[in-house]
Amino acid sequence: MSSYTQLTQGQRYQVEALLEGEHNQSDISMILGVHKSTISRELKRNGVEKQYDQIDAQRLTVARRKAKTQLRIPEET
């Protein structure tokens, strides 16, 4: 397991499939080769109403990334 990287869209698809197959977070982390805290954070940040949908998770991730890159100081300043 290496340093922290965000999950890819394909990995999010695998997380959803493994959760539907009733795998726990530790199993999912070993299968994907990421730290179990990465899976925990993914489910906490991108789970909607205790459900995980990889399409919603990807949409939320992209929205957060886009919001982070927007200018924080108005151009008028």
Characterize the structure shown:
The structure is a single chain. With 77 residues, the chain is mainly alpha-helical. It has one domain (9-67). The chain has four helices and no strands. The protein has helices at 9-20, 25-32, 36-46, 54-69. It is elongated and about 50 Å long. The termini are far apart. The mean pLDDT is 85.
Per-chain topology:
Elements: H1 9-20, H2 25-32, H3 36-46, H4 54-69
State the end-to-end CA separation: 45 Å
Residues in β-strands, percent:
under 5%
> Could you say which overall geometry the principal axes of the C-alpha atoms support?
elongated
Query: What is the residue-mean pLDDT, rounded to a whole number?
Result: 85
Q: How many DSSP-defined strands?
A: 0
Which percent bin holds the helix content? 55-70%
Structural class computed from helices and strand pairing: mainly alpha
Number of domains: 1
Largest sheet: none
The ordered string of helix (H) and strand (E) elements is HHHH
Question: Unreliable segments (pLDDT under 50, ≥5 consecutive)?
Answer: none
The number of helical runs is 4
- Gyration radius (Cα, Å) is 15 Å
Features:
mainly alpha; elongated; 77 residues
In short:
The chain is an all-alpha fold.
